[in-house]
Design a protein that fits this description.
Blueprint lengths: L5 E2 L9 H6 L4 E11 L4 E6 L11 E6 L4 E9 L5 E9 L15 E11 L4 E11 L4 H5 L4
Parallel strand pairs: 2-8
Antiparallel strand pairs: 1-7, 3-6, 4-7, 5-6, 7-8
Length: 145
């Protein structure tokens, strides 16, 4: 597991975005990214407006608490053909995940993305996901019937 990826367990629940914000640290938003396959590149994109970032705001940099998740800005056309900036989240393949399901243990993780805005404010995005391996046909055929 990469440094900066926080495992989520019943007894080590991360602080909620509301608690982080109440403590005056930074504005925070939480995203449940669902299931991410450890041996594949995966991507998600969310409009910056979801995080309270206005179109006029400039994102100067994005840092990640883990080298397994990379944030970047992507511009796309929405349904009204308007250009929208979004936070593109890339989940990199785990370097040693290999092709074997036998040696892999699924784990719930949380990664922190910090967006530095022009003028000094920061937005923090907490990305929670379940890292798993896709079940191969061989492993599936070993299941009891």
């Amino acid at each position: 597991m990469s440094l900066g990826c926080s495992p989520l367990t019943a007894d080590s629940t991360p602080e909620s975005p509301a608690r982080i914000q109440a403590l005056g640290r930074v504005q925070a938003e939480s995203i449940d990214a669902g299931v991410v396959f450890a041996d594949e590149n995966s991507y998600l994109c969310f409009p910056l407006a979801r995080f309270g970032i206005a179109p006029a705001d400039e994102v100067l940099s994005i840092s990640s608490s883990c080298d397994c998740v990379v944030g970047s800005i992507a511009t796309y056309l929405d349904t009204s053909d308007s250009a929208v900036d979004g936070l593109r989240i890339r989940f990199l393949p785990e370097p040693n995940s290999g092709n074997s399901n036998e040696d892999f243990t699924p784990v719930s993780l949380m990664v922190t993305l910090t967006l530095q805005l022009q003028g000094g404010p920061q937005k923090v995005v907490l990305v929670e996901y379940l890292r798993v391996m896709r079940v191969s046909d061989v492993a599936r055929s070993k299941e009891p019937v």
